[in-house]
Design brief:
Elements: E1 3-4, E2 20-27, E3 33-41, E4 48-52, H1 63-71, E5 75-79, E6 89-90, H2 98-112, E7 118-123, H3 125-136, E8 141-147, H4 171-179, H5 189-192, H6 199-206, H7 216-223, H8 233-244, E9 251-256, H9 265-272, E10 282-284, H10 291-294, H11 296-309
Helix pairs in contact: 1-11, 2-3, 3-8, 4-7
């Protein structure tokens, strides 16, 4: 596996992102190694709150919530998923799968950082990767927050249809992303927000990708979308769900009213997961898919109030 790296200084000087940043080295799953970018703030002795982003974002999307959680006395930790942000990037589309993303994050968060008593705060693809991690190590997880994503499943015992083809609202987008000459993740930012992103914000989302080859991880995520019934993520999620239906620790959903990706994704999660019962689930008004950008203070306030209430 060939590994690409974003130059270390690419994220220097970004607004509201003056946190401790470092790398942990993990196995790449192919006999080599790669670096995962880790952002930390708050007291090292605080209970860990781990933020996982999705696509086309990176840990920068959590900057306001990281600060809010750190100010509340927690150890705030955000990582860049492999292939995204400042983390290393396997160079080929076939290097990426949901199962590998889960393995990579398990190596970084559990094996290397040794985290326990974790509160996960998950968004977009981070929900799928993060909930798979919860299913692998439920005893290490104290609480979970999910935002603007679904958790699609397929029972592997059910036969696949005879005709296998890409369908649904993301099939055309998936085809475009696979075929376009240059993939620019930051170009999706205006469509992910209700408010208009500033030039500085667009530049911050572009910062980890000074060379077109470095966008491979984001492009690969588009090809993992479950547009086909034989997508290998679906039975893997089903197996994880069998564990998650027994997860009875606090589980909160914070969604937004103008999300274009999974506006109703919280419904199945609330129905499936026992820990969601009786929690103050919220749909924030005035937020798009990137509600962390549209409603940074509101998101942080809801999150910190819930953390305090579930101590």
């Amino acid at each position: 596996m060939k590994i690409l790296s974003t130059p270390d200084g690419s994220a220097d000087g970004l607004a509201d992102f003056d946190f401790e940043r470092r790398y942990v080295t993990i196995p790449d799953g192919d006999g080599g190694s790669l670096r995962v970018h880790v952002v930390e703030a708050g007291p090292a002795t605080g209970r860990p709150v781990v933020f996982l982003h999705g696509n086309p974002s990176w840990s920068y999307i959590w900057r306001h919530q990281i600060q809010a959680v750190a100010d509340a006395g927690y150890r705030a930790i955000a990582v860049d998923l492999v292939g995204m942000g400042m983390s290393d990037k396997p160079s080929e589309m076939d290097d990426y799968s949901v199962a590998r993303h889960v393995e990579w994050m398990q190596s970084a968060l559990i094996d290397e950082l040794g985290l326990e008593d974790i509160t996960f705060v998950l968004h977009d693809w981070g929900v799928i990767v993060g909930l798979r991690l919860v299913a692998l190590a439920p005893d290490r997880v104290a609480r979970v927050v999910c935002s603007n994503s679904g958790f699609p499943v397929r029972d592997p015992a059910r036969p696949l249809p005879e005709a296998i083809e890409a369908r649904g609202p993301y099939a055309d987008f998936q085809k475009f992303a696979a075929e376009v000459a240059e993939w620019e993740p930051w170009a999706m930012l205006p469509g992910c927000m209700v408010t208009t992103p500033s030039d500085a914000l667009m530049a911050a989302y572009r910062a980890p990708y000074p060379d077109p080859s470095l966008t491979i991880g984001s492009r690969a995520f588009t090809q993992l979308l479950p547009t086909r019934p034989d997508n290998p993520m679906l039975p893997g999620n089903f197996v994880a769900l069998e564990v998650l239906t027994g997860f009875d620790r606090p589980f909160l959903t914070i969604y937004s009213d103008q999300d274009i990706v999974a506006p109703d994704g919280y419904q199945a999660l609330v129905d499936w997961i026992p820990g969601a019962a009786g929690q103050p689930h919220v749909i924030l008004e005035g937020g798009g898919h990137f509600l962390q950008e549209d409603l940074p203070e509101e998101y942080g306030a809801v999150l910190c109030a819930w953390l305090a209430a579930t101590e």
